[in-house]
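INTERNAL TRANSFER SHEET
From: sequence group
To: structure group
Subject: Arylamine N-acetyltransferase

Please process the attached sequence and return the structure record in the designated field. Keep the field labels unchanged so the import script can parse them.
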Amino acid sequence: MNIEDLENYLNIDSNKYNEPSLEALNYYLKRYMLTVPFENIDVQNGVRISVEVDDIYEKIVNHQRGGFCYEMNHFFKAYLEAKGFTANMVSATIHTPGGGRSLKGSHMSLIVPIDGVNYVADVGYGDLPISAMPIIDQDSDAIIEDINGEYRAIYVDDHLFYIQKWKDNEWDTEYEAELEPRDIHDFDYNIEYNQINPNSTFVKRLLVTMPKSYGRATMSQNNLTLTKQRDKEKYDMTSENYRQFLKEEFNLDVKINRLEP
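Return from structure group:
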């Protein structure tokens, strides 16, 4: 991985911070999230996913692509470690509408400890703030305010924490995650499942999403949705317009087979 080329691509000033800190983490996190979209286009196109750092570097920097959680957080972990941080991959389970759960451990999140505090620095989830979230006790009032809403990360016990977003006057759990550090190969089963199993959301549906200065842009096989504060603009997706939307909103230049005529 060529750090200089990566930082040029992310528009990161390599001289801005000389050592790990919360301010540095937030700077790197924001630049990454505003540059690299979350996307599952390779899965949709039947292209095998590699979680080797050099392969992800090639995809993101040289081909100006994004990826899903296993690619994004593994790669961001490698970058943070090159900048002197400690970063731990952890196993997470998505909470779905109606009280359901995803396949256990199907999401990979990222924790960065700084000065005795664990911060969630997850660049591979489709709805999180563009700053790190301290994991806090449940009775704490510390929250992260973002253009897309209010968020918090809370300890459930010594082994588990929740990521939550304020919705409809209550805290809604986005996912639960274990605190135990994991190796990338601990996710091998879920990486395979989310590439080929017809029951996987990533196999069933296209998802491209990215935080923006105005809020968030999200593309499915049916619509492009631009979320601006509480307002949503929706545009129908067709074989004629999807490449333009990909380029304008996500800086992606790639064919999506299911949207071709």
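Handover comment: The chain has a mean pLDDT of 94. The chain has two domains: 3-187, 203-254.
Transfer complete.
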